[in-house]
Amino acid sequence: MKNKKTDVGVTNYKHVEEALITDKTFIEAIFESIPGMIYVYDEQGNFVKANKRHVEMTGYSMEELSHMNPLSWYDKEEDIAKVKAAINDVFLKGYGEVDVPMRIKDGSILFMHFTGSRLIVGDKRYFVGVGIDISESNKEKETLKESEAQNMALINVFPDILFINKPDGEFLAVHTSHLESLFMPPENFLHKKVEDILPKPISDQFMKTFANALGSKVVQEFNYELLINKEMRYYEARVMSSNDTIITIVRDMTDRKKIEKMLEESEEKHKYLIENSHDIIYTLTADGIFTFVSNAWTVLLGHPVAQVNGHQFQQFVHPDDILGCMTWLKKVIETGERQQGIEYRVKHIDGSWRWHTSSAVPFKDDTGKIVGFEGIARDITERKQAEEKVKEKVDELEKMNKFMVNRELKMVELKKEIELLKMNTVKSNDGDEVGR
Description:
Layout: H1 2-33, E1 37-42, E2 47-50, H2 52-58, H3 62-65, H4 77-93, E3 95-103, E4 109-121, E5 124-133, H5 135-157, E6 161-165, E7 171-175, H6 194-197, H7 200-214, E8 220-228, E9 231-242, E10 245-252, H8 254-265, H9 267-276, E11 280-285, E12 290-293, H10 296-301, H11 319-335, E13 339-347, E14 353-364, E15 370-379, H12 381-435
Antiparallel strand pairs: 1-2, 1-5, 3-4, 4-5, 6-7, 6-10, 8-9, 9-10, 11-12, 11-15, 13-14, 14-15
Helix pairs in contact: 1-12, 5-12, 8-9
């Protein structure tokens, strides 16, 4: 009977031993599969263990690593202080992390994200650390900062109002260099909806245009009026969508409206404004022949006035925009009313193309017949370029945000693997105690 019991004890011992060997193999596999360096130090900072990836990343052999401590990698006192604080967190709280530049054997710098967990085996305490090279991620962050700085510089000189909204109308951002164009400070818009800020007819128009912009890649436009400080102000809004974000660029047209009103009211003022306006004043026959252009044409486009008057407008407009302009002029004739908002490209004397927008009214003879058009054209090249840059920057920021979210998700998964490694290491050491 004694021999039988002894045999059973030996068998059980072998099963335990085999299980421990299996667990150890499993732990070693995890240890070597972590996508970064992994290391173990005791509470006194003595090296215990590291994976092969640690050797590959730093260039130091296992023998060399065995003579190093957790602070051997850093040049600056502030970096050493950060690492000490993280190690202290590990032993006091059970977990710590830090981002810090690390100098490796060849003298180069890796920007690392380190995480550490406390490990207790018997009466001894260790910390298990994992280091991930985030040098590329850090470069992305710096690029993002530069991009944001460029965005703000662009926005600060942008002459118009910029609204960024969610599809449901919530304001995410408001920027303008002309606060007088807003009836409240920009920060008061944030996280409120259009309907909470603007009168209902205007908010309804905004929301309708938002919906149209989401369903189309075409820029949507509308005009509205708003009473601010007892003065009626006039605005032109252009709306575009970028994924699930609505970008609205609003131009305060009040000064232009005043100019237009003055043109209508006074012949003398009309003449004065034509000669001094930065916009092009023009007249066309019903057939589209220029009969007059102001000197602003020469200033903005380079052609002498004499080379423009008496010529068809089609000679100066981009071929792709001619049909749109003809349709627009036809609408002036058909409605007998002012039309505005047409955008088209005009050829500069140097061969480049400039974006213009125009408004026009029908010109009638004594019998009431429409015989031509009177209009105002404005150079919007900078605005068009700025709109494109804003859209590009929003797309760039969205891509960067997705990258950072994915990185955080990867770090969460990595922390889970560290916890699994910790649990299995404790199990392995407990098994070693049983074996002894």
